[in-house]
Amino acid sequence: LALYFHSGEREEKCIIEDVPSDTLVIGNYKVQRWDIHKQDFLESAPGLGMFVTVTTPSAEVLLSKLYGPQGTFSFTSYLSGEHVICLQSNSTRFVAFAGSKLRIHLDIRVGEHFLDESVVQAKDKVNEVNSRLEHLIEQIHHISKEQNYEREREEKFRKTSEETNSNILWWAIVQTLILISIGIWQIKSLRDFFISKKLV
Questions:
Q1: Which residues of the chain form beta strands (DSSP E)?
Q2: Contacts of 71 (CB under 8 A, 6+ apart)
Q3: What residue ranges carry the coiled-coil annotation (predicted)?
């Protein structure tokens, strides 16, 4: 997931990432500040920090840390589900004057284990091949976890759909019984009315 979004200073922006359990999540970000004279975003925002907070599906804070204007954060999920990742600048200016527009570039990678470049560039080909194999095995484990998580979500969705369909069927039966009862009552009322008026 790679994106950028605009934010005001001290304004908190959050994204939701659906993550399987026991999965490494790595986020890279860069903050640019709007320059009113150049009418463009500066390449960097020196002196400005970003406060990163990650909340689990059970509303537990998994990560809460202050970083610089450009940085990398990471966490490992222990629960499957929607993790909320929030970023907020820590402008030191007064709130009334902290109105600069910021552009935040964010790149989130789920389940990736990066190869150590020093190992990749090593002359020892056996170590390089071994390292690449370990990386591939980690990727296979991640794909397997993703598939299991998607299977669990699909099963949960199917159960919910079946319960909903069952409820709809019972509601339709109840509605039909009510309509039949009202019809019988109306016929009986009309019959009694006609008998009382001696029309029948």
A1: 2-8, 12-19, 24-35, 40-41, 50-55, 61-67, 70-76, 81-89, 101-110
A2: 28, 29, 50
A3: 119-146
